[in-house]
Amino acid sequence: MEDKFKYLFGPVPSRRLGRSLGVDLNPVKVCTENCVFCQIGRTTELTLERREWVPTADVLAEFDRWVAAGGQADHVTLSGSGEPTMHVGFGAVLRHVKQAGPFRTALLSNGSLMWQPEVRRDAAAADVIKVTLSAWDEDSFQRIHRPAPGLSFARLLEGEQALRREFAGRLWVEVMLLPGYNDEPQQVQAIADLVKTLAADAVHLNTTSRPAMAGVRLPPVPEAWLRTVAAAFSPVAEVPAFLERMKSPAEMSDESLFNLLARHPIALTALAASAGMEVVALEQRLAPLVAAGRLVVEDHHGVRMLRARSA
């Protein structure tokens, strides 16, 4: 990604979307929730307010410049620094992308605003919508997601169920399992029973793989346990593998690398594998940014994670 882009990032390698061009419609970090597992950091403005957080016209102009420069991606994905449906123009962005060429679109949402009909209407412009369901009642929802005042678990669930009834595209449900929060067998089963009511096209079972920057230190749930409980979901939940290829960091500018990692912390070995580089060569490429304090390499339960200092 060229340095001139402010709202676009990537394309980044995605576990399920291939090469995904990210579109960030939120300032860091405006969100409806302050999830304990968030990789971006603590929510600085916790609100349910919907408004034009960044200028829609500027976002569309950047995308048009990217297309004119020959940009290619498997999906154009609304994600980034907060909840994209908070932006009143997110539907306009989705529709513009679809009109600009043969681009598939994805919306990565926490599902918190789907109880609003206008949000569901605009979300339906996407080819793929991913929502989150990692709690089973109000207490677990409050403990895991720490939502803005006015957002309840009942409201979240009813909104996601309404989305499924109205949305003809592919609906994915992500379930984040966290040790000590929702990983006991009866808790997983309670979540799985609710996920079934969403009639998802796919269920993605996940755990912490990047540093949780929201002030809570969380180890990952063991992969063996994820695979054990996957069968409780319908359809059987998928356990992710990081296999996609991205542009080599050797070919990226310092600013492009910094902007990518500010929104997408990643394991050093995963970044090297996805870019087709040796870890030693990657470390050499990153050394000036690490020495300058812009990038940080830190241990996360035995995994060396790379992130931007401001992330």
Report on the architecture of this protein:
The model has no long low-confidence stretch (mean pLDDT 85). Helix 1 (56-68) runs parallel beside helix 2 (90-100) and helix 2 packs parallel to helix 3. Helix content is 33%, strand content 19%. It has a seven-stranded mixed beta sheet with strand order 1-2-5-6-7-8-9. It has two domains: 8-244, Aldolase class I (TIM Barrel), CATH 3.20.20.70; 247-311, Winged helix-like DNA-binding domain superfamily/Winged helix DNA-binding domain (Arc Repressor Mutant, subunit A). The chain contains ten helices and twelve strands. The two termini are 18 Å apart. It is α/β, with parallel strands linked by helices and 311 residues long.
- Number of folding domains? 2
Strand order of the largest sheet: 1-2-5-6-7-8-9
Taking the alpha carbons of the first and last residues, their distance comes to 18 Å
What would you call the shape?
Answer: globular
What is the class of the largest domain in the CATH system? Answer: Alpha Beta
- Topology pattern, helix = H, strand = E: EEEEHEHEHEHHEHEHHEHHEE
Number of helices: 10
Mean pLDDT: 85
Q: Indicate the proportion of strand residues.
A: 15-25%
